[in-house]
Amino acid sequence: MAGPEAGGSLAVPNVQQLASSSKDVPIRYIRPELELDQVSNDENSQIPVIDMSKLGGGLDDDDDSESAKLHSACKNWGFFQVINHGVAEELIRKMKVDVQEFFNQPLQEKMVCAQLPNDIEGYGQAFVVSEEQKLDWGDMLFILTRPVDGRRMKFWPRIPSSFRETMDQYSTELEKLASSLLSSMAKNLGLDLEKLLTLFKQGMQGMRINYYPPCELATKVIGLAPHSDGTGLTLLTQVNEVQGLQIRRDGKWIPIHPIPGAFIVNVGDIIEIMSNGEYKSIEHRAVVNPAKERLSIAAFHSPNFNAMIEPLPDLLVKDHEKHAPNYKSVSHQDYLQLGARSKIDRESRIHQMKIQPPSGAVKIEGPPSMVEKS
Ligand code: OGA
Ligand code: NI
């Protein structure tokens, strides 16, 4: 894949370096519009928590009420946390230590893994496509971890020396967890489990390790601008105790409080499309702490390259009734290219996939004064 067109990024300053060398925040990071955002302070409004020990991976021993809770989480929230997920605590701990050690190195050591022009993998920043674009207050290391034979080891840190081995194990375990969740989702959607798993077999997995330096003007910058994940299913872990993930709900931003040891899971655009919109890919963002650095590891899971990205045909004939597809049907390759043309607006990949209702039949929400005249 090449060019910002394919998701590669223009070179921009290293934010960790910037934050450590001066207290001034360059204008390209300042976002006056953030002031208008409403952040919810309702402590009771938190994403559902799913106990994986009660789910049997879509098999008959799934506990009915836990299954129902998962189904509702995917439909009504698009985000949830999983506990008792079976990924060894020690492995997660090692992954966090290795990630922290990578970012603690001097810049020139990290630059060994630097993004190359027109490439999405490596150490740098994502989604910078123009010189005028506002920038996120964060750096990241992105590597494609699956399929295994597609790994490009030059982007995998050698320091700390345990990094590659730990990441390999972490990748394997998260893939298992993602498959188990997908199986339970398939059952909930009334889908043939094997069919869905086949789409994700030899699937793509990418790891995005985010580093958000502290910023004195924390409320005026954003660590990761609002977006929905273009992939299938994301499993996120927060590396230290500093919180910052927020999700959009009812026009407000809800801060997520991670449960120690849990993974935060979210439905990505591809699952929304495959479920024909029954499951929701929700917009989210990461805010910055004024005094402390924050790190997170997002593991993205997508179908294999041969899979079509489309509402699953079996869902369109559910209960002996035909349902109209709400999204287009494209090859995985073409789907990835859609991001290309969307340029700055990362959201528009899924917008391009949406089949618009014919004009004249547009559902009108809100008072008529809010409806745009055309
Ligand atoms: C992402 C993401 C959130 C976070 O990497 O796509 O949404 O808390 N990260 O870092
Ligand atoms: Ni995300």
UniProtKB/TrEMBL annotation:
InterPro entries xrefs: DIOX_N, IPNS-like_FE2OG_OXY, IPNS-like_sf, Oxoglu/Fe-dep_dioxygenase_dom, Plant_2OG-oxidoreductases
Family annotation (Pfam families): 2OG-FeII_Oxy (PF03171), DIOX_N (PF14226)
GO MF annotation, one: L-ascorbic acid binding
Domain Fe2OG dioxygenase: residue ranges: 203-303
Record key words, sorted: Iron, Metal-binding, Oxidoreductase, Vitamin C
Family the UniProt entry places it in: Belongs to the iron/ascorbate-dependent oxidoreductase family.
Full protein name: Fe2OG dioxygenase domain-containing protein
Native species: Linum tenue
